[in-house]
Each structure stands twice: as structure tokens, then as C-alpha cells.
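To close the section, here is one more complete example, presented without commentary so you can practise reading it yourself. The ligand is erythose-4-phosphate.
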Amino acid sequence: MILQIMKFFLDTANLKEINEARSLGILDGVTTNPSLIAKETINKKEIKNHYISICNIMRNEEDVSAEVISTNYEDMIKEGEKLSLLHPRIVVKIPMIHDGIKAIKYLSNKNIKTNCTLIFSPGQALLASKVGAYYVSPFVGRIDDVSYNGLNLIKEIKKIYDNYNFKTKILAASIRHPLHITECSKIGIYAITSPISVIKSLLNHPLTKIGLDKFLMDYQKIR
Ligand code: E4P
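Output:
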């Protein structure tokens, strides 16, 4: 049974966009990745403070995924622990690789929340959940890009997690258009993470504009 409305995370490291989503009243969390951080006008030394600034915009239960750069176990756990100490809202994003799985297990045992990223198959999602990932991030749009159906992956992961009552939350990533969002909500996953432009495109329907224009025109006829 679904107990709450699907959450909307913003996939960005841009403070202006995060504030805009907050002012719209739709912000449930933020996910970042190294490519998104690279779009911001900050240098490497400023990245940690940038994560803290993002966390400071958040309220209530909202969290912020910050990704490790290391790819070996020892460095990943060190980096993950450091990131988690930056702010209580930080969730450590770890790539779905051999040492990443070990790092997720280690961090989860220390009660540090993790987001297992770069998920492209149900088997990867199964592994991530077995080692205690708090979130998995299946990349819907990037699967569509190579002529497969990204939403099928979301359905398969949901089925597997439901079968075993896994606690790992599905956070659909690489969201490219409004149908990705509405279809994910039909599947009934925990959250999507999306650029603000895609979330705002949920607003649009030509009949809404035509209808409003007519209402306003008719109002002018009233004496
Ligand atoms: C996921 O956490 C990633 O940040 C992101 O959703 C990737 O999206 P893209 O495929 O549009 O880069």
C-alpha cells in the first residue's frame, strides 16, 4: 500500500534552482553528481561548502546526495565518512561497482545513509539492497538513450523489492520528460530525481492556456 505521494527530488547542484523548487512547494530532496557539481562556478576546494549550502536550504526530512570520487574500497569509505560529517542531511552516493558494494555495506553498518548510483539492471539493484543501500538510483533516461525501456527497469526493481519487502527506496534518476515522472508514480516508487525544467513541464497543457484565456476574455464582457 502506498502511504505517501511520490517524492520530488531535484537533480542539480544549483542553489537558485533548489530555492525555486522550494518556493514552488515541491522540494523533497536533492541529488548531485560530479557532472552537476562541475556545472557550478566553484573550485574543488569550495565543493564541501557548496554541499553545506545546499543542505542548509533543506527542511524537515529532506536529504542531499553527495557522490564520492574514489573508486577503491578504502578511499570510498574514508571519503564517504567525511562527506557524511559535513551535514546530517548528507546521503553518500556510491557507484555500483565491486568496491562500491563493500563500501555501502560498511557505511550502512555505521548507520550512514547511502545512495547506490549508476544502476542499469535489476541484478545491480538486488545487490545494492542486499548490502543495505538506503536508496538505489536507476537511470531511466540513459537506458532509453540506448533503445531499451528505462521504465521497465523501474517496474522490475519494484517487483523484486516488493517480493522480499526490501527497505531500499527506489529513486528514479536520469528523468528526461514529464511522462517519466507520471509513469514512475503509476509504478508507485518512493521518489524521482529530476531537473527543475522537467518538473515545471508537468504544469503545461494547451487546453489550460486556451481555457484561461477564454475565462479572462469573457470576464472583460461583464459590465
Ligand atoms: C542521478 O542521481 C544522476 O544525478 C542523474 O539523474 C543522471 O541524469 P542524466 O542522465 O540526465 O545525466
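Once you have examined the C-alpha cells, check your reading against these statements. The mean pLDDT is 96. The beta strands are 7-11, 29-31, 63-67, 90-95, 114-119, 135-138, 169-172, 191-194.
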